[in-house]
Amino acid sequence: SKSQHITQDGAKSAGSGKFEDTSQGKSTVIDESKALPLRENIERMYQIGQIKRATTLPSSKEEKECFDSKKTSLNKCNEKSKCADEVEDICVVHIAVCVVIVDNLPHEDVWRSWMKSTCSDLVSASTETIKAEAEMYVHAKWPTKVNSRWVRSKLLPISYRPDWNDVKIIRAMLALAQQALKDKRTTHILFCTESCIPITTLNEAAIRLNSPSSISGNINLMDRSFVDAYDGKSSRCTRFDELSCWEKLQHVIPRDAIHKALPGWCLLSTKHARSIVDIPKCDLGGKELWPVFEDVWAPEEMFFPTVLALLGYLPGPEVELSALTYSEWPTRAKNPKDRAHPYTYDNHFSQKLVAEIRESGCLFMRKLKYPLDVDLWKNIVTGGVGESTKRYSSEAYPSRDSKKRRKHYDDC
Fold first, then answer.
1. Strands (E), 144-256
2. What is the DSSP letter of 57?
3. Beta pairing partners, 338
4. Which of 25, 38, 49, 337 is the most exposed place for a label (fewest CB within 10 A)?
5. pLDDT tens digits along 133-142
6. pLDDT tens digit string along 351-405?
7. What's the rounded Cα separation, in Å, for the pair 377 and 366?
8. List of residues 6+ apart from 183 with CB closer than 8 A
9. In contact, 328 and 406? CB cutoff 8 Å
């Protein structure tokens, strides 16, 4: 959009996106975006995003500054060796596991084993060598009730006290992302609940994140996010979605930008996560976007895919429309609100279940409410690592449409 300067004699000239008011003899720079209503700012952000997507414009100055320090190492992750005696590049995949809990992390032992056992290993995929690392960040509703010393060491210093189906869940997720982005090693952000567990090794997850799919195209694979999203034109959009989500948002957000993701607990690249947390200062004149989602059903399922669409990333090759965290919801309940809770798999965790879920391309799963025996997890998840690693490094991943139908288990 064109910005202008207002001078003392009323003349206007193209400028930097700000107004300069000198009518009182003093020069005061006013940010144009702050003077616009929220809807206008959002529409402008969406228009800019659409132009960027259509013309593949280079990143903004702010985004460029954020990623210059990583540009060389990230590009190396997608370059193939050009000669036999070339020194092999190392691609570091550093996953920030961002967990929202109440006051307990029931699968602490599983996550600690997942992070500790493989974080220093090197694994090879094609001609690339990948080093897998991970760190955990935790937002607790009741941080003072957290008993585990290890979990307390991962806590954010703030709590938004989110309830179920509460917009404050978005605030908690954004706070986690902001904290994770402070670590320059972070390449990906995985959002989880306390009922999530990994069902691959960390090495396998790292290989998956740097492996092409059938729709990847010519992109930097480290910039890719995984969000199983759909828009209002999709057959997946139900009447309940229309009434409780789309109609709640379309008075502020362009309808074509509104998307929903199932599950809402997605994985974002650092590039996309930084663009999202920077929206208030870069796109909305200091205003927050999350309050727009206050009356929306399951707001976290709407927020992240909608924002990716507003920014021009969705639809696009950098957002893969598939989930890395497996969840299934009951579909036969007459009341849509009775379909709100995903199936639980306590007492059903088995080699067969994990194999079926992994075959779909998922790396994590929910919902397991109660602590899972870590030895059982190790025996199941680390079994057949060689076979699954070979699959991850050599084949394109299945899309949502090719997922197998899996057996449902009712809540225990």
1. 188-193, 197-198, 225-226, 229-231
2. P
3. none
4. 25
5. 999 999 999 9
6. 999 999 999 999 999 999 999 999 999 999 986 443 444 344 334 344 443 343 3
7. 14
8. 94, 96, 135
9. yes
